[in-house]
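User: Hey, quick favor. My workstation is busy. Could you predict this chain's structure for me?
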Amino acid sequence: MDLLYGYYNIDYTRDGNFLAMAGGKGHIAILDWKKKNLKAEFNVKDKIRDVKFLTNENMIAVAQKKYAYIYDGFGTELHRLKFHAEPLHLGKLKEFNRF
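Assistant: No problem, here it is.
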């Protein structure tokens, strides 16, 4: 198997319906894996270290080379977390979003 965009990090929504995949070289895809429906696919052209869904399938957080970013479900950048410089993992970020 040849992975064009390097290794992949994955995360599922809490209900298990949606899957976020982020390739090490910038490829991001969000899909409904049960229905086999691609919701969004885009390339950030930066090194990606981790990806996590936030409240639902409409927002994801991505740990990139310099900062952590938040994108909506269509690939639009919503926010850049400047105070999280060179993030490696986003595991704790998910704990803060339990409403």
